[in-house]
Amino acid sequence: MLADGGLVRWWPRWLSCPESTVLFDRLRTTLPLRQEQVTVFGKVRAQPRLTSWHANEGCSYRYSGLTLDPAPWTDDLCELRRRVEEETEAVFNSVLVNLYRCGSDAMGWHADDEPCFGPDPTIASVSFGGTRRFLLRHRETGEKREYPLGDGSLLVMSGTVQRFWSHAVPKTAKPVAERLNLTWRRFLESV
Questions:
Q1: Which of 25, 65, 116, 121 is such that its CA lies 20 to 30 A from the CA of 59?
Q2: Distance between CA 99 and CA 105 in Å, rounded?
Q3: Cα angle vertex 181, ends 96, 156, to 5°?
Q4: 3-class SS at 24?
């Protein structure tokens, strides 16, 4: 349990190593991953990672001056969604896939607090490949938590996490293997 009603649950080895290796290879080669242009602090720049957005038809995702139209669901994504929903007892209709190619690919401090996800969304994160640091920081107190998200891990943020905490995947100078991360969300189609 986190301060202010946030909840983080973490399974360091949710998928077995052989299974996660097979899934990583299939997802890496079949998903339409690409580098998008975003606006950060008024400047347009290439995202420091590759992304792919999958959701029900009509669920376009907008952030940082970017609009992602949904790509089709694959069989692997549908099966993973079913398993994540079963484990978390949550319902998801979208997934943002991020590919971190090396240590300089990163995600800055942010919260998944867009209105399209509702006031207190549940976000489930499944990681494949190299281990990266996942940081949480309370917006007012500065309290920090760290989770090493490795191959086959599952981390779930729920309650008020997106309202009171920010999270990041920082750059690292250490050599790291590619990391594929799937963040499952419930997109509110009427927003």
A1: 25
A2: 8
A3: 85
A4: helix
* Per-residue pLDDT at 191: 47
- Rounded to the nearest integer, the mean pLDDT of the chain is 93
160/59: higher pLDDT: 160
Distance CA 150, CA 6 (A): 22
The amino acid at residue 62 is R
Q: Which two tokens stand for residue 169?
A: 């995947």
Amino acid at 40: V
Q: What angle do CA 11, 15, 18 make, to 5 degrees?
A: 145
Question: What is the C-alpha separation between 73 and 91, in angstroms, rounded?
Answer: 16
- For residue 55, which of 38, 34, 69, 37 has the smallest C-alpha distance? 69
Give the pair of three-digit tokens for residue 22. Answer: 């097979």
Handedness of CA 113, 138, 141, 5 (dihedral sign): positive
Least confident among 112-116, 152-156, 171-175? 112-116
Kindly tell me if the per-residue pLDDT of 40 is higher than 80.
Answer: no
CA dihedral 96, 108, 132, 75 (to 10 degrees): 0
In the chain, count H helices and then E strands: 3, 14
Which stretch of DSSP H or E encloses residue 22?
helix 17-30
| 179 in Cβ contact with 99 (< 8 Å) | yes
What 3-state class would DSSP assign to 137? strand
